[in-house]
Amino acid sequence: MDEVKLYINGEIRPSSTGEMVDSIDPSNGELVSKVHIPSTQDLEEAVQSAKTAFYSKEWRDMDQLKRSEILLKVSELIKERKRDFIAAEIKDSGSTFRKAAADIHNSASFFKIMSKVTAGFKFEEIDEKATRAGFSKNTRRFEPIGVCAQIIPWNLPLQMAAWKIGPILATGCTTVLKSAVETPMTAMMLAEVLIDAGVPKGVVNIVTGGAKEGAFLVNHKDISKVAFTGSTEIGREILKQAANEVKNATLELGGKSPNIILDDADLDIAVDAALYAFLYHSGQACTSGTRLLVQEGIYDEFMTKFKERIAQVPLGPTQEKTTGLGPVVSKKQFDNVMNYINKTKEEGAKLIYGGEQELENGLDKGFYIKPTAFEITPDNTIWHEEIFGPVVGITKFKTEDDAINMANNSIYGLAGAVWSKNEDRALKIAKEIEAGTVWINEYHLLNPGMPFGGYKQSGIGREMGEEGIKAYLEVKHLWESDCNTREGKMWLDAIF
Ligand code: NAD
């Protein structure tokens, strides 16, 4: 039996009170690990250790090339231990083998790309346009914001931890990261990697817990920045709390992303991609393509192919390499998703496929839900509310303007996609979609060198890319006078 402990001040150790909760394998309901819950004293120690590390000479004065080396080492160590990471991610989060393998690979790649970005980032640069000989030399200098509280969800446990810790190491900030209590294993394994990669003690602290532990960190006076990934509902709360002390906040929140299939799309690819868009990790992806908008001229043909392919989706045990669709993360999430399915049925939407728990082939002990598709309109609840399960709503549209209006009819704006063989046509629509990432003839893929985040209520700020580094930096304008005579400084005459 594994125990998931706390990583505080460079040490992996138990909770001071010994309080623990069970973590369950979502594919069979079996106990996976005992998870240590930090006490208030543990959390306070974590914040103080991050604060001490932030002001330590070792971390403050570390050259960016050294930080870049550490990031690369982290990437290499994740790769070396990928089998252990994959095994843990599967049983802790209910990821399928294929999804877990992709997540571990992507996490290692993310650290590698952060290493490159860190080496090349201009932390200090004279602005030649602003600088005037005989008047001033003007320099832009980027400095780390300070001690951060970082809170992550349960859907992509290692990747979410990587996206948060990468910029900490890149910029010279320090952090207390709180993983989701449902999926704490791989974040704690990452702690072991950080120790072996030579990250100085206290720079990164990792704890788990729920709302209480998260709120403690967000509200702590020594925290300068809050970085949160999770639901829009909790994001709103966090923003209010951060406002009390005007803390810098980055929010990566929910989505209800439109996936638009135009009448000149390659239908075979578009159908498989539409299934991938809403079934990846059982729909528990913030970018999930959960509103599928199909143009009327191809609607019937698309639906015929769609029904054929959805029936072939391989639901199965998470460990099997052939499994394409696994369980949802917990009984709580299972109930949430089933409530949305039942509500949509009650609202009279036409059920195209699924709509129930999967009980066959020995899957009845896990939290499996059949891939589910409804025909919906904007009057349905699931048009507007994020489900975070394997459920899609399909709608027919006439014109491109209709597609744009429907796509933007949402409080969310995280992602979207357009499928067409005509690039100009697709681009025109993509530019009109109010979302932080819009794919053309693609779905879900992210590039760590490019920014990721949401418009509207899908969030504030960006992760990844240069924007993701700047999110952890304050910018200072250093003004050096190049005018050193009293006559030259005629602005002083305003007083004398
Ligand atoms: P959640 O909002 O319930 O919880 C997220 C995290 O916040 C957890 O660690 C939780 O313990 C913590 N938390 C809960 N209440 C808190 C409070 N009052 N104060 C501080 N912390 C608190 O989300 P979830 O159910 O874990 O994850 C699913 C959500 O995450 C979905 O809405 C999904 O779209 C979103 N998500 C967004 C992105 C993105 O990059 N935009 C990525 C992944 C997931």
Explain what the structure shows.
The chain has 496 residues and is of the alpha/beta class. It contains 16 helices and 23 strands. It has helices spanning 40-55, 57-60, 64-80, 82-93, 97-120, 157-171, 185-197, 211-219, 232-243, 267-279, 299-310, 331-346, 381-384, 400-408, 423-432, 465-470, and strands spanning 2-4, 6-8, 11-13, 20-24, 31-36, 124-126, 136-144, 147-151, 174-178, 204-207, 225-229, 248-252, 258-261, 291-295, 350-353, 372-375, 391-397, 412-413, 415-419, 437-440, 455-456, 459-460, 473-481. Strands 15-16-17-14-13-19-20 form a seven-stranded mixed sheet, with helices on both faces. It has a six-stranded mixed sheet with strand order 10-9-8-11-12-22, with helices on both faces. Strands 1-5-4 form a three-stranded mixed sheet, with no helix packed on it. Helix 3 (64-80) runs antiparallel to helix 5 (97-120) and helix 3 crosses helix 7. The termini are far apart. It binds nicotinamide-adenine-dinucleotide.
Distance between the termini: 78 Å
Helix content: 25-40%
Number of alpha- plus pi-helical segments: 16
Number of strands: 23
Overall residue-averaged pLDDT value: 97
Bound compounds, each kind once, are: nicotinamide-adenine-dinucleotide
Give unreliable regions as ranges: none
Report the β-strand fraction as a percent range: 15-25%
What gyration radius follows from the Cα positions, in whole Å? 24 Å
